[in-house]
User: Fold this.
Amino acid sequence: MSPVCSAGCAGFKWYFNVTGNSIGRLRVSIDFVHRFYSKDLYSVHTKLIVITADDHKSEEVNMSEFIDEFIGTWKKVITTPSDFFKEMPTSGGYGEPLKFAVVNYIIAGIGTALVSILIASLLPIASFWPGSAFSFGTALSNIIITPITGIIGLFILGAILYICFKIVGGSGSYEGTVRIVAYASAVDAVSWIPILGWIVGLYAIYLGIVGGTFVHNITTLRSAIAIFIPLIVLLIIGAVLIVVLGAALFATFGTGEYGGY
Assistant:
């Protein structure tokens, strides 16, 4: 604090500047001025204490509010996707969609780890199967890796779908497309449940179609075509690889001294 004092008929007048970011210094400085010179500044000092106390309380409340908000958003995405994507902003940053997706990926990672450990404990023979040794370490790594790979995949898939939506005449943005993928990750929260995972996988496709309809202002049919383009391409690539691999195996083992005709 840098006080400058001047005396006059009206009494002392103080001008001061507060330096630094410490709220403690700010309290002491203002309290000092109040104590000796200004009665009005007491209200400022009191307000600062209340605001600081409220900040601590808000930090405790924030987590509860975040959980309630997440559950509310998750329910709306799953139960009324048309209403959700119709009201969803297509811009405004990636913060909120990514937080929602990360929670889903964390739940998926924890669930997958628990199922893996349960299978290993119920089926001891699984421990002798190559690559199926489960431990606390592998479960923990799965919980950590799943959100990381999920977020990376989210942006990659968003780019692929953005191109596909543009092919069918979509007018939406890349950010809007990423938001579709992020909120469609709601299915990942239950995808780790055995058998149910296949069903929610199909529902994720449906969420993508609904989201694309509103974000890119296209018909449901065009949105479905855009969503299925990557799947069709993957199927074609897979079929080509199978044919090439089969031909290579046939050329290696199907002819020659022992296998030829």
Notes: Strands lie at 4-6, 13-15. Confidence is low (pLDDT under 50) at residues 1-58, 126-132. Residues 4-72 form one domain.
